[in-house]
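Appendix B, example 12.
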Amino acid sequence: MREAKRRGAYTVGIANNGDTPIRREAEQGIFLDTGAEPIAGSTRMNAGTAQRITLTLLSSLVMIRHGRVYRGLMVDMQAANIKLSKRKTAMVGFLTGKEEGEAETALQRAGGQVKIAVLLLHGYDVETAADALRRAGGRLRQAIDLLTETGGASARERPSSRN
């Protein structure tokens, strides 16, 4: 923790005991008052479970704050296998109401990026979509808002059927 602080990282200490060095030294101490373990010496039960849940919650909140989640979906996921590639396609289809084939094509045009694919299926070209995402700090919701507010792209850049 000291090395992390020395390098400028924000530190969080999570502990199941109220008065521990990790909580005192951290910039943010979190106390998980889980009480005594049902089986003495078995911290994997109450304490370990509480810490795992807390870390899952914190990491999910970080992903949300960084704009990597949109409408409850992890839109910045990396497709490292066929299952995750299919999940990306399903995600794009769900977010846009488009069929699987259209979603796959948009993902290919978007270089596998879900956010860009969604904006493509909203009628924008790759350059306009990427620029909107850059201006929105990578947040899809804000990029859609930016494009909607400004009209986003010229008539030649989007299909005439877009309303």
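The radius of gyration is 22 Å. The chain has a mean pLDDT of 89.
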